[in-house]
Amino acid sequence: MAEQEASGLQVLLQTLQSSLDRESILAILQLLGDLLSVGTDRRIRYMISKGGSEALLRTLVDTARTASPDYVILLPLFRLLAKVGLRDKKFGQKALELEALDVTLILARKNLCHSQNLLHCLWALRVFASSVTTGAMLGINGAMELLLKVITPYTQKHTQVIRTAAEVLAALLKSKSNSRRAVNRSYVPRLLRLHQDWHSHDTAHSFVPIRRALLLCLKHIAKLRSGREAFLAAQGMEILFSIIQNCLDDQSLEPVISIVLQILRQCYPKSPLPLLTTSSTYSFPVPGIVTSEAPRVLTEEDYEDDSEEEEDKDSDSEDVKEEDDDLETDVNKLSSKPGLDRPEEELMQYKAMCLELSCSFEELESKPGDDLNSDETEYANHHHIPTAASPKGLFLNKDQISGGQEKEVLVQNSLLSRVKMGRSSIHLTSKRGPGMNSYRNVHSNDPGIDSSGSDVSDIQASFLEDAGDMDAISCPRISASFSNSTKTRETAEFIDQLLQTHLKPMVFHDPYLYMAKARRTRSVADFTMMAFPDFWGHCPPLSAQPMLQRKCGVQRIKILEDVRRLIQPSDIINKVVFSLDEPWPLQDTASDCLQFFSAFESGNLRKAIQVREFEYDLLVNADVNSTQHQQWFYFKVSGMRAAVPYRFNIINCEKPNSQFNYGMQLTLYSVKEALLGRPTWVRTGYDICYYKNHYRQRTAGAGAASGKCYYTLTFAVIFPHAEDACYLAYHYPYTYSALMTHLDILGKSVNRKQVYFRQEVLCQTLGGNSCPLVTITAMPESDRADHLEQFRQRPYQVITARVHPGESNASWVMKGTLEFLVSSDPVARLLRENFIFKIIPMLNPDGVINGNHRCSLRGEDLNRQWLSPSAHLQPTIYHAKGLLHYLGSIGRRPTVFCDFHGHSQKKNVFLYGCSIKETLWQAEATVGTSNLSEDVSYRTLPKILDKLAPAFTMSSCSFLVEKSRASTARVVVWREMGVSRSYTMESSYCGCNQGPYQGLQFGTGELEEMGAMFCLGLLVLELKSGSCSHQLLTRAAALLNAEEESLDFYLQRILWRETNSSHDDDGDSDDSKYSCQ
Ligand SMILES: [Zn+2]
After folding, report:
1. Would the pTM count as exceeding 0.90?
2. 144: closest CA among 107, 103, 113, 175?
3. Of the listed 54, 601, 860, 986, which one is catalytic?
4. Is 264 left (phi over 0), alpha (psi -120 to 50) or beta?
């Protein structure tokens, strides 16, 4: 701004305040008006900084206090005040100090019949009221009564005045003292009547802003408990509910509808959940004190603010807020390495878990002519590469692989060839047959399942004849104590018969073995049933399913249906039809309602209440020994009708948002479909929304209606068959028994001449289950000393998963990793020959078994226990960490550590890593870090995965070290063991919004593929590293040449450029902004 202009403005402002001459005041006002009319915000702000607001306010006070105020001056002055006041944050305060409030109110009163003058006064009041303190003062001085005089019932006259008055009143009611006054003076029924009057007359919707302002008044009052009570007493719910019924589809009424919904939700009486206690139904006597978080007791003040504005989440924004103040900015904490957390001699116990380092392999005699590399036949029978983007059947039948075809099959299905396909073809077209072979005859009692004779009509017949035995079919009793009963024997025979008739053999699954494993699995509630899908098995669907397109306005409709329960309760049934807490049996099988069941491994459903004929409220169980973490669900439902949409509402969810609002569907498994040859978990449900409901946690002393909020997940399902048994789950279930079955089958499937596969017990869990540890590498070429030396010197890679039991996606990724690592894929072979994989596939078996979402049996998050785990309280973490410490102590710390997780708020697959520099930069705490050197190799693996794996994206990766994550596996393994490539790999529960799978939800196939791609990433990482052996480079090059045609461009680029340079990090320009110079 020019100097002259600046000084000129100051002169003008001084003259304005000192001048008594009417003409010069008018002239100055005119000048200021002209100046600001062409000016930008900046010019107004400049004027404010030079005392413009004060000058105008003083002029107002001086002019208004005369016996007969001069409106020729006052009107332009008010216009200027309104304009300047909008931009001046302290305007209300200044007006209060300069006593401009009173004079304005007096002027307004005097001009009740002079609409122009009145309107100008209201403009000034509106800017005064933008400060809550000033607003409260205006309220004390009677501003609200004045405004209510102005706001008349429907008229077509002076509507601008009425609108402004209503807006000023709404602004005043932001002050709690004004709201209290409004309640005491019965404004609520008056405002409701006024609104009703305008609503009913304004059929052309010409005065929507007036209607909206009146509603805003009610909304602000409803922030007070007394306001909500007054609203309910005045039949506000009924009035607004009936108003909104007829105008939901009217776009022009959007500003009104959204406020009405907010008021209805705010005023819906809060109530505690329909549970006697929020503590888990299951409790387990655990060692030590259970540190279950006590519910926070809220103060009155919190309570008043309880009903903050509720966004109508029909929008598409799902940005997850990133918290910068959680970043660790203490350089010492980031860069110092803490000492060992246990006596050093304790580490020796882990020597027994690394037998590969001492085994002499005497049984391996190198016989001339016994070339292991050419011995492929037995191996190929188990050839299975978990990858989703296959144009060919993945489940190779033994018959398919014979003689000369073998080589071709191997090439076409190798992971490297998939890399290209995955990147270049859209997955929807992929086809795969349900379970064709591979695993057979593992179980000696295998009755010899014959799929050829199965006939659909037979299945249906047998199914219908035995409809009464539905439970028995879907949940055979497994407890030994029942084994003598006739019923059980019959059931067992029936299962045998079913399996013989209907089960098609499935890769890496065996129902008999599953049953045997499930029998040994120990649960808190002593489950005696198995869920049919876990027992029978799952084949990935033929194609990935697209994300659900959200219908516009569906959430409103659902919320209004909830409100209707209160207003029109005539059709509400409210009958508890299932409850873990109440005496069995609750279920009345004769009645028409659905039947529920959840007492099986990983099952979670606590209670079901029939609300309307086809609508059920469901409550999920808190984690064992906890009062929270309700998210995972898995239950059976039966007794359904065909072609009827059932609505389910899970009403005690805890997270404030969910991917269910952004295209994610739950999963369903139909027993009838399985018996018809389609044993598949599919995504299902429509009209899916996730929103805050009216339930609040009951807190001691404060009673109901004051604790933390709950959220409703609502969805509708049309079941595929009548009288079916269907299983619904948050995500594709993967039980502990499934893992144990899988590991057994894997162990028996490998070619022992080539694959070193060892399964052992890391430790026992609190619940008495074994936590498995798997070692995979290649057998040494022979027992010759140099071969044994190569074998023992292979670097370690450590992978863990499922510390969070609700993250079953992590288990499917792990399944893919395991199957790939033992496969005959050339990449897998190279990996085995160059690394020793130590894998703990399930860090929290007890949590998985008992249907927890987050915690162990002690009700604590095991991924917050890595700093100082206890052998007695967190055995799996203690020993996982011990094993890592041991490897470090013998100079064999792993190249990569990765812990597989699932993410409920984001899409795609991505890694979290650890970087000191990136953390400090993000926190803008760079002081004293110039000398800090950091190897940026932690970025290499995610960059490789970004190029290889269709589901993976670098853009969601983060390398920040948060204080709240200080005790996670990732951070502790990085800091204490010095593993620079220590990661958490997060897979979305939903699907992808980028890459070839964009717009698709994950199936198990895509998750398994990710597990295989992760392994390929480890190989490429090694090839890129300076330490890569010449032999490996040559073998990899040969492998790549052999398949050059099908190679992805990116992979070639990565490999060839990097093999010619020894630098680990390539400093790609795409993330130069992060590069650590
Ligand atoms: Zn997790």
Report:
1. no
2. 175
3. 986
4. alpha
